[in-house]
Amino acid sequence: MSHIARSALIIAVFFGMEKLLGFVRQLLIARQFGLSEGLDVFNAANNLPDLIFGLISGGALAIAFIPVLSEYLDQKGRPEMWDLFSRVANLLFLVTLGVSIVVALFATQLVSWNLGIAPGFTPDQQSQVVDLMRINLIATLLFSISGLVIAGLQANQHFLLPALARSMYDVGTLIGVIFLAPSTGYQIGPITLPALGLGVYGLAYGTVIGAVLFLAVQLPGLVLYRFRWVAAINIRHPGVQKVLRVMVPRIGSMFFVYLVLIYIPDNIASRLITGSVTALVFGWLFMQVPETLIGTAIGTALLPTISGQYARDEGSVFSSSLNTGLRVILAFTLPVAVLIALGIEPLVALLGFDQAGTELVAWTTRAFLLGLTGHAVLEIAARGFYAQQDAITPLWASALMAALYTVMAIWWAGWLGAIGIALANSVAFTLQSLLLWYLLNRRYPGVTRVGRTLLRALAASATAALVVILLMQLPFSNIVVSLGALLLGGLAALPFIWPEIKLLLRM
Questions:
Q1: Which region among 59-68, 133-142, 301-310 has the lowest average model confidence (pLDDT)?
Q2: Residues 160-194, buried b or exposed e (16+ Cβ, 10 A)?
C-alpha cells in the first residue's frame, strides 16, 4: 500500500469514527429537541463562529499554508519550517482574537439585521442566538490554534493526530448532550447519569469542551516533530508573504462557500416552516459522511504530495496524481450516493422525528446527495490549484458558484422549501467542480481522462440500486434489513470498480 493510500485510510478510519460519534450525538440531540425552535436557534448560533474559524485559521489556512510549509520543509529543513509556522500562527491568532471580540460586541445587530443570521426569528429566539454565539466564540479561538497545528502536522505528512482530534471534539460535545443539556438524566441499567438541565446552552458548553480536547490531543505531535515557537510577527518575511498571497484569495473563496453553506440557506430557511434550518443541518450531515470519508480523506492525504511534486517541477507526475484522485473518487461516490439515497429514510427515522419531519429530512438529504460527487471531486480540483499556489482561479470560480446558488436557492425554496435549498447547493457545487476540472485540463491535458471509470461507476451504481430496491421490498423490512440491503448493494458494486480500488492502493 502506498503512502498516500495509507494516509487516506488512516484519515478515513478516524473520520468514520468521528462521523459515528457525530451521528450518536445528533441522534441524542434530535430525541431531546426534535425539529424545534430551540434547535434551530442553536444551529443558527454556530454559523458566524464557524465562519471566523473557517476563513481565518481553518479551511482557508490549511490549504494555503500546507503547500508553503511543504516547500520549506523540502528545501530548507524543519527548523526553518517551524520558524515560518510560528510567524504565521502568531499573526493569524491575533487576527482571530480581534475579529471574535468585534463579533461578540455587535452580535445583537448581526443576528437581527434583515440581511443577518436569523432575521426571521422572534426577538426571544434572536436573544438566545446572541448568547449562544458568544459562548461559541470561545471554542472558535481554541479551534483557531488547532487549525494552525493541523497544518503544521500535515505538512510533516502526519495525519493520525489531526484525524483523531475530530473524534475527541465529538467526545466533548457528547458531554454537553448527555450531561449538560438534558433536564432528566439518562438511565444506564440501575445508574442514572447526572443532568444539569441547561438545554441548548449545554450544547454550546459541550462545544467548548470539545474544542479543548480537539487541541489537546494534537499537542504531542508538536513535540514529536520538535516544534520550537518563535515569538515574532514579520509580515515582510518572504515565507509569510507567500502564505498571505495564497491565503487572502483563499479567504475570499471560503467566504463564498460560507454564503452557500450557511448564511444564505439559514437566512432563507429562517423564513420557512419550523424545522427547516435543522432539516438542512441534518441533510448536510448525512451527505457529509461519505464526502468526508472519500473526498476529504483522499484530498487531505494528497495535498502535501502534489505540493511537493509541483515544487520539484514534476508536471507529469503531478497530473497523474490528480487524475488518479479524480478516478478513485468518481468510482466510489456515484454508487455510494445512490445507495444512501435509497436507504436514507429508515436511518432518518432513528432520529425520532414524526412522519412529516422524517420525510423532510430524508428528501433534503437526497437533494444534497445529488451533489455528493461534485463536492468530493471538488476536494481534489481545488487542491490541484492550491498545490500550484494559485488561489485566484478557485476564488472567481467560488464567486460564480455563489451567485448561481443564490438565484437558485431563492427561487427553488419558494416551491420546494428546504429541499430546494439543498438542491441548489448540489447543482452549484457540481458546476463549480466541472469548471475547475476543465481549467486543470487546459493546463495539464488528459488530467480529466475518466471515460472507462465513469462507465464502471455507473454500472456499479445501477447494480447497487437494483439490489437495494429488491431487498427493500421484503414484507418484514426494518432498519436491520435496510442496513443489510445497503451492505449487499455495496458489495455488489465492488467488482465493477475493482480497477479503481487497485489504483487507490497504488497512489
A1: 59-68
A2: ebbbbbbbbbbbbbbbbbbbbbbeeeeeeeeeeee
CA distances from 298 to 16, 334, 377 (A): 13, 16, 10
Rounded average pLDDT over 271-286: 82
CA distance 55 to 162: 19
- State residue 336's pLDDT score: 95
Count of domains observed in the chain = 1
Q: Which amino acid is at 217?
A: V
Separation in Å, CA 11 to CA 29, 48, 163, 293, 324: 26, 27, 6, 8, 18
The boundaries of the domain holding residue 432 are: 272-448+498-507
DSSP state of 176: I
SS percent in the chain: helix, strand, coil, step 5: 80, 0, 20
DSSP 257-310: HHIIIIIHHHHHHTTSSTTHHHHHHHHHHHHHHHIIIIIIHHHHHHHHHHHHHH
pLDDT tens across 193-214, in order?
787 888 888 888 998 999 899 8
Q: Is the pLDDT of residue 159 over 70?
A: yes
Distance CA 249, CA 395 (A): 6
DSSP state of 2: -
The conformation of residue 196, written as its DSSP 8-state character, comes to -
What does the alpha-carbon distance between residue 69 and residue 77 come to, in Å, rounded to a whole number? 10
Rounded distance between C-alpha atoms, residue 303 and residue 62, angstroms = 10
Q: How far is CA 347 from CA 15, 39, 342, 361, 463, in A?
A: 19, 20, 11, 10, 22
- Has residue 365 been placed in a domain? yes
Contacts 24+ apart (CB under 8 A), 354-357: 357/34, 357/35, 357/275, 357/279
> For residues 480 and 30, what is the distance between their CA atoms, to the nearest angstrom?
21
Provide the phi-psi class of 34: left if phi over 0, else alpha when psi is between -120 and 50, else beta.
left
429: confidence class by pLDDT, cuts 50, 70, 90 = very high
pLDDT of residue 365: 94
Q: Is residue 466 part of a domain?
A: no
Do 125 and 116 form a contact (C-beta atoms < 8 A)?
Answer: no
How many other CB atoms are there within 10 angstroms of residue 36's CB atom? 15
Rounded CA gap, 220 and 317, in Å? Answer: 34
412 within some domain: yes
Alpha helices, DSSP H, located in 76-122:
78-105, 107-112
pLDDT bucket at 333, cuts 50 / 70 / 90? very high
Structural domain includes residue 355: yes
Q: What global pTM score does this model have?
A: 0.76
